[in-house]
Amino acid sequence: MRLEPGSPFPLGATWDGSGVNFALFSAHAEKVELCLFDPKGQRETDRIALPEFTHEVWHGYFPDLRPGQLYGYRVHGPYDPKAGMRFNPNKLLLDPYVKSLRGDIHWHDALFGYRIGARNEDLSFDRRDSARRMPKCEVIDPAVTWGDDHPPKHPWSQTIIYEAHVKGMTARHPELPRHLKGTFAGLADPSVVDHLVKLGVTAIELMPVQSFFDEKHLIDRDLGNYWGYNTIGFFAPAGRYISPTGNLHEFKVMVHRLHTAGIEVIMDVVYNHTGEGNQLGPTLSFRGIDNANYYYLADDPRYYFDTTGCGHTLKLTHPRVLQMVTDSLRYWVEECHVDGFRFDLASALGRDRDVFDPNAVFFDAVRQDPVLSQVKMIGEPWDLGPDGYQVGNMPPTFAEWNDKYRGAVRAFWRGDRPAMPEMGRSLLGSADTFDRGGRRPWSSINFITAHDGFTLMDLVSYEHKHNEANQEDNRDGNDNNLSRNWGTEGPTDDPHIRHLRDQVRRNFVTTLLLSQGTPMLLMGDEVGRSQGGNNNAYCQDNEMNWQPWTEEDGMDTGFLQFVRDVVTLRRRHRIFRQEAFLHGAPIDESGHRNVVWLRPEGGEMTGEDWEDPNRHGLALLLREPAGLSALLLLNQFNEQMDFKLPAEDVTPEWKVMVDTEDGTVNPTKRPFGANDHVKVAANAMVVLMGQRA
């Protein structure tokens, strides 16, 4: 086989039309061997040492190799865990830049760099070859015809996000062929895309689709890593989502079809840790390539500095690790046309060990990048390290998951007291948290439910988690769900309880979609999906997590129509999606202000009203300079409440737009005039709109 020096750039395996260049960063390695495999990935056919070492990159060029070639690496160097060195050439390693993985991990003790069960890990170097148990990297030809693909580029103020799981969205769909269920191709099917279009969302946020695997402890219990927060390949789509008869480009086809329908694709990405776990985890890639540079090490280098709860933290302060992450992000934007990213445990990305910095090197690199600065960026602003809760402290240009909003809205509609101040701030985009540095209301990603926690149906059906199926004695998952079962735990045939639960679900959806900020809906909430009270269904690849598509499977078509109608109301009226924070500023010469808080009995709220624990009703008046007014009446009390309408705001009438008690949007109820009284049912919400003279 011919071998030439090649180039240290770009990293990874690169087909240039004539041959393949291989380049791997490892500052501490003593030798790097490229291992080639037969087309089935079962037999190692060649093992060649990369001939050159330039700027801490090992590289070589092979004129005779072609796309489709399967490969891996063996990296030689010291095995000295006490010094943070864990090289073991007996372990086949995945290329950090691999674009396609063939096969899966087959758990065996040979996957570990040390001999399991040995008393002294430092002296228990494991000499068993792991190649047979490992997936293989594949050289790809990235060329694809995109045609007339045009990213929708929806402004943030018009964005409505739908968090979804590729398999969960498609596994039960009755119109999909069996081989497309649970795949990118299934998600791209017109019947699935049509559901999103009719729902009215503008972006789908996909739970992790970068390559990941099922951990051994889950496999041993007949479970799996369904959610996918266990990345091992930052450039490669997860093979489990590619159809048996399909290929690597199915992800790109899916993106193109969603774009054609006007829907953006946002990827949930995990760059805070990898799938290698703590010091006792397997040696699959980074640990065996250059452990001390890819991960933060503890004061005792045998261990890792962990802020993620997953055993270690990726070291983004190292320039080559930072390069890998930003290269990965650019790859998904430029080669796969994705429209943005949601960063899991984003606080970990802005750390230098104990210290979080909103101007950390990762954030600065992304903000100045000519490609990445043009796409949507969303942070999950917390991790498990010191001072890890950073809601409101992500840098400008980043939006953030706002769990303060989630807690405030849940507490209010559960009937907690006092809940008024937090609810008021939440309805207006949490300006107290985000109004700084020129940030806008869209910086707050408002959500009431997400993949982690109760679904919307379970939020109104269970007061306690029921995670027994996870086989952890119900110890896992959050114990503070701010939920209420409204009469009995779990499913019931009681018509009164069922009606009340439906009404509160409508309260949640109406509040979410008519709040300032960027709303995010959870897959299945629009059709009443339940997880049976499981609030941590990360390991359940079954109907607990799969979207129902028929009434026989539990699909709530009536609630689906309600959600569609409220989404339409938000999209139709800019008053619910302002591009600047509302602080009660005058909007015209008459002194009308853009926002006014009113008591149910009439008159403006005072400071004492906000702190009154016996106050259960709240009215929010929104005004636009063009003359449109909206009035949100919220009653968290268990009795009907009478609201007095403002005296001079609209002429000639207020029209009822939403009534969560009977589930109508744009109802044909009689309009109301100035000073009229509106009766709002117990635990309900009414929305009115009118035009000022």
Taking all Cα atoms into account, the compactness measure Rg is 27 Å
Number of strands: 31
* CA-based shape: elongated
Structural class: alpha/beta
* Order of adjacent strands in the largest pleated sheet: 12-13-16-17-20-21-22-23
Which oligomeric form is depicted? single chain
Given as residue ranges, the uncertain stretches (5+ residues, pLDDT < 50) are none
Specify the CATH class of the domain at 12-138: Mainly Beta
**Sheet with most strands:** 8 strands, parallel, barrel
CATH topology of the domain at 12-138: Immunoglobulin-like
Strand content: 15-25%
Task: Write structural notes for this entry.
- Helices cover 20% and strands 20% of the residues.
- An eight-stranded parallel β-barrel has the order 12-13-16-17-20-21-22-23. Strands 24-25-26-31-28-29 form a six-stranded antiparallel β-sheet.
- The longest helix is centred in the C-terminal third of the chain and has 20 residues, at 495-514.
- The model has no long low-confidence stretch (mean pLDDT 96).
- Helix 9 packs across helix 10 (420-427) and helix 13 runs parallel beside helix 14 (557-572).
- The chain is elongated, with a radius of gyration of 27 Å.
- Among the domains are: 12-138, Immunoglobulins (Immunoglobulin-like, Sandwich), CATH 2.60.40.10; 595-691, Golgi alpha-mannosidase II (Immunoglobulin-like, Sandwich).
- The chain is α/β, with parallel strands linked by helices.
Task: Give the topology.
Elements: E1 12-15, E2 20-25, E3 31-37, E4 44-49, E5 52-54, E6 57-62, E7 70-76, E8 79-80, E9 85-86, E10 101-102, E11 136-138, E12 161-164, H1 166-170, H2 184-187, H3 190-199, E13 203-206, E14 210-212, H4 216-219, E15 231-237, H5 250-260, E16 264-269, H6 286-294, H7 319-334, E17 340-343, E18 351-352, E19 355-356, H8 361-368, E20 376-379, E21 398-402, H9 403-414, H10 420-427, H11 431-434, E22 444-446, H12 456-459, H13 495-514, E23 518-522, H14 557-572, E24 595-598, H15 607-611, E25 617-623, E26 628-635, E27 641-644, E28 655-659, E29 664-665, E30 677-680, E31 684-691
Parallel strand pairs: 12-13, 12-23, 13-16, 16-17, 17-20, 20-21, 21-22, 22-23
Antiparallel strand pairs: 1-2, 2-6, 3-4, 3-7, 5-6, 7-11, 8-9, 10-11, 14-15, 18-19, 24-25, 25-26, 26-31, 27-30, 28-29, 28-31
Helix pairs in contact: 9-10, 13-14
